[in-house]
Design brief:
Blueprint lengths: L2 E9 L3 H19 L2 E6 L3 H8 L5 H8 L3 E6 L15 H10 L4 E7 L12 H4 L3 E7 L7 E9 L2 E7 L4 H16 L4 E6 L5 H15 L5 E6 H10 L6 E4 L1 H12 L9 E5 L10 E5 L16 H13 L4 H16 L2 E2 L9 E2 L2 H13 L1
Parallel strand pairs: 1-2, 1-3, 3-12, 5-10, 8-9, 8-10, 13-14
Antiparallel strand pairs: 4-5, 4-11, 6-7, 11-12
Helix pairs in contact: 1-10, 1-12, 6-7, 8-9, 10-11, 11-12
Bound molecules: 3-isopropylmalic acid and magnesium ion.
The site of 3-isopropylmalic acid (IPM) has 4 residues, from helix 4.
Length: 364
């Protein structure tokens, strides 16, 4: 029997509700495949601000380092929304990414055939859409210095800095090319090389790394064109790789191809061991949705699918990950829907019921 340590950070809003369902599904995996998952739970985000005065305690980061993986809910809410506050719930996710060195964020976008009419786009446009967006996660505008606000005679001033080193670009490119090799062998590198110096360097480095993967086709496109192509011909993409801020924006757009943010998992990865595994943080890409917190409406599938990615990418448990993904597919095919993905003829269920349906199907 293998034992794995998993840190749970449920966070705020619907975070705890969706994490609870993922843990239920993981319990079925433990039982069916004979693993032991040892959980530790840490308070983060707004809840941690209330309790400890900061969104991410050093103890939490230390606990993450001792774990095989972190399963992260969501952070934030109106209570902590003052943009001028010294501490913000978002510090929790940004701090985790930076301090654990999780530089590559994988966001798969697949349109489930049974949900294709859920999207605001036409069926013909969406058919065959299956891509992974890799967002660089620890550089760029989010972390570049200087980053500050001040005031002078001309009024309020503010600066953020977009900065990348070639090493930062190289390592995320390797993740993209390696991933493409297991897929359709196509990488689209997204930049703003017509305007930004960082974009020019990004493009150069992408080309250099691409030369090491002659079997993978590389194309470069500008970020504004990418935003357009995502809704015009989404099925043409295989692996997209881009810098932090562009990736943040493009992945919300790409998520809508699938009909709901409630279906979208993500993995944030750092350096890998020889066997390909390594610590990672797994989270749904939706936020804490304070407007529906506590109402049993949240869709737990993004978190459940994130748990599947965790099994595959940090624990090396491929068959177990595939079992969860198959169970989610089967649940969708059987017509079960939470309110966010409800459509004609759907069997409407709440958060806990959706979790239970997937759990049953994993248990077999
Ligand atoms: C995301 C979110 C975060 C980000 C926020 C919550 C800081 O939008 O994971 O995409 O901007 O990275
Ligand atoms: Mg975002």
């Amino acid at each position: 029997m293998s034992t794995f340590r998993i840190l749970l950070t449920p966070g705020d809003g619907i975070g705890p509700e969706v994490i609870e369902e993922a843990v239920k599904v993981l319990a079925a995996v433990q039982k069916r495949f004979g693993h032991e998952f040892q959980y530790q739970e840490e308070t983060i985000g707004g809840a941690a601000i209330d309790r400890y005065g900061l969104a991410l305690r050093p103890e939490t980061v230390a606990a993450a380092r001792q774990s095989h993986a972190v399963l992260f809910g969501a952070v934030g809410g109106p209570k902590w929304d003052d943009p001028r506050a010294a501490v913000r719930p978002e510090d929790a996710i940004l701090g985790m990414r930076k301090q654990l060195g999780l530089f590559a964020n994988l966001r798969p976008v697949r349109v489930h055939p049974a949900m294709i009419d859920q999207s605001t786009l036409k069926r013909e446009t969406l058919e065959g859409t299956d891509m992974v967006v890799i967002r660089e996660l620890t550089g760029g505008l989010y972390f570049g210095k200087p980053k500050r606000r001040w005031e002078n005679a001309a009024g309020r001033q503010a600066v953020d800095t977009l900065r990348y080193s070639e090493r930062e670009v190289e390592r995320v490119m390797h993740v993209a090319f390696q991933l493409a090799r297991g897929r359709r062998n196509r990488v689209t590198s997204v930049d703003k090389a017509n305007v930004l110096r960082t974009g020019q360097m990004w493009r150069e480095v992408a080309t250099e790394i691409g030369a090491q993967y002659p079997d993978v086709e590389l194309e470069h496109i500008l970020v504004d064109a990418c935003a357009m192509y995502l809704v015009r011909k989404p099925a043409s993409f295989d692996v997209i790789v881009t810098e932090n801020m562009f990736g943040d924006i493009l992945t919300d757009e790409a998520a809508m191809l699938a009909g709901s943010m409630g279906m979208m998992p993500s993995a944030s990865l750092g350096r890998r061991r020889k066997d390909g595994t390594g610590i990672g943080l797994y989270e749904p890409i939706h936020g804490s949705a304070p407007d529906i917190a506590g109402q049993r409406k949240a869709n737990p599938l993004a978190t459940i699918l994130s748990a599947a990615m965790m099994l595959r990418l940090s624990l090396g448990l491929e068959a177990e990950a595939a079992a969860i993904e198959a169970a989610v597919d089967a649940t969708i095919l059987d017509g079960y829907r939470t309110p966010d993905i409800e459509g004609p003829g759907a069997r409407l269920v709440d958060t806990a019921k959706m979790g239970a349906l997937v759990t049953e199907r994993v248990a077999g």
